[in-house]
Write a structure and sequence with these properties.
This protein is an alpha+beta fold and 311 residues long. Helix content is 31%, strand content 25%. Helix 1 packs parallel to helix 7. The radius of gyration is 19 Å and the shape is globular. The two termini are 33 Å apart. The relative contact order is 0.18. The model has no long low-confidence stretch (mean pLDDT 93).
Length: 311
């Protein structure tokens, strides 16, 4: 079985920097970035010990698919994707917030609500909701963008008061976030899916605000299957979903939520293979395309050549 791509360690002639994220290896040039989607997987802001085969390819190709599909809705950072695991784009100055938008009460929002809290990131939630209910309207619940450790919930008012983003720019970020979520919701609907919640990141390049990073992937988004959604809610059943939430749930069931002193549970070959197949399933469901497993022979050399030919 493909053992996955845990990391890359390239050096390019014109490279001026390198950044290793939770999942991506970012090669920094004067005006551009070369971003490699590895097979690392994170949950609760912790990178798990084993790579997931084909996950990087899935993430990169889904993100590229949606960045192309929404570039008329919101301008973005992408120039090209010369390899299934690589995206080349403009080097933007990122905003220090992540714009999370939620159409349903799921995941972190539900866990907060279940604890009895009714205000999330400055947004008041109505009484009487249950897990996975549709919200009266989509809500924006931003988080801080931490260089290390956990991202933290933050309200619009706190962002402006702390000067993290200026008011005019923040209004533009909200406008772009809602437009992208609307577009993503419609594209998901056409594939028999519900876009439950997602996050967007933005930066500036040449004085313009651009969408950066990934979009509508299983790492940044949660999807439900539309068929049977209402029946499952009515019967208090779990929703059938395509997202990374099943990884989080497996970790929670095995005593891990990223808290101090907790041990990451052992990931068997069966668990790893299952996660890989779930990622491939999401790719095929959300894009409507068959997934083509790339050869893992000389994978790093293939990726390196693609970057060299694009910079």
């Amino acid at each position: 079985m493909n053992s996955g791509l845990p990391e890359t360690n390239f050096q390019f002639p014109d490279q001026i920097g390198f950044y290793k994220g939770k999942v991506r290896d970012v090669y920094i040039f004067d005006k551009k970035l070369a971003v490699v989607a590895t097979d690392r997987i994170s949950a609760f802001d912790v990178v798990l010990p084993h790579p997931i085969p084909y996950k990087g390819q899935v993430l990169n190709q889904i993100a590229f698919h949606f960045l192309n599909a929404t570039k008329e809705v919101v301008p973005n950072w992408v120039i090209d994707s010369p390899d299934p695991n690589v995206t080349i784009g403009w080097k933007c100055e990122p905003f220090k917030v992540e714009m999370v938008i939620r159409g349903y009460l799921a995941g972190h929002a539900w866990r907060t609500y279940r604890e009895g809290k009714r205000i999330l990131c400055g947004v008041t939630l109505p009484e009487g909701l249950k897990e996975n209910d549709r919200l009266p309207e989509p809500i924006i619940t931003p988080t801080t963008k931490a260089d290390e450790g956990h991202d933290e919930d933050i309200s619009r008012e706190e962002i402006l008061a702390q000067g993290i983003v200026g008011e005019n720019e923040y209004e533009q970020l909200e406008k772009y976030t809602r437009a992208l979520f609307q577009a993503g919701t419609e594209m998901a609907r056409q594939k028999g899916l519900i876009l439950v919640d997602t996050k967007y990141e933005f930066g500036t390049y040449g004085g313009k605000i651009l969408l950066i990073d990934e979009i509508h992937t299983p790492d940044s988004s949660r999807y439900f299957y539309a068929k049977g959604y209402e029946d499952r809610q009515r019967n208090n059943e779990s929703q059938k979903q395509l997202s990374k939430e099943f990884v989080r749930q497996w970790l929670i069931e095995n005593g891990f939520q990223g808290k101090e002193g907790q041990q990451i549970p052992e990931m068997s070959a069966e668990i790893i293979a299952g996660i890989s197949e779930r990622y491939i399933e999401l790719y095929e469901q959300i894009t409507g395309k068959s997934f083509e497993r790339q050869s893992t022979q000389s994978m790093e050399e293939r990726i390196k050549k693609s970057i060299e030919g694009s910079m």
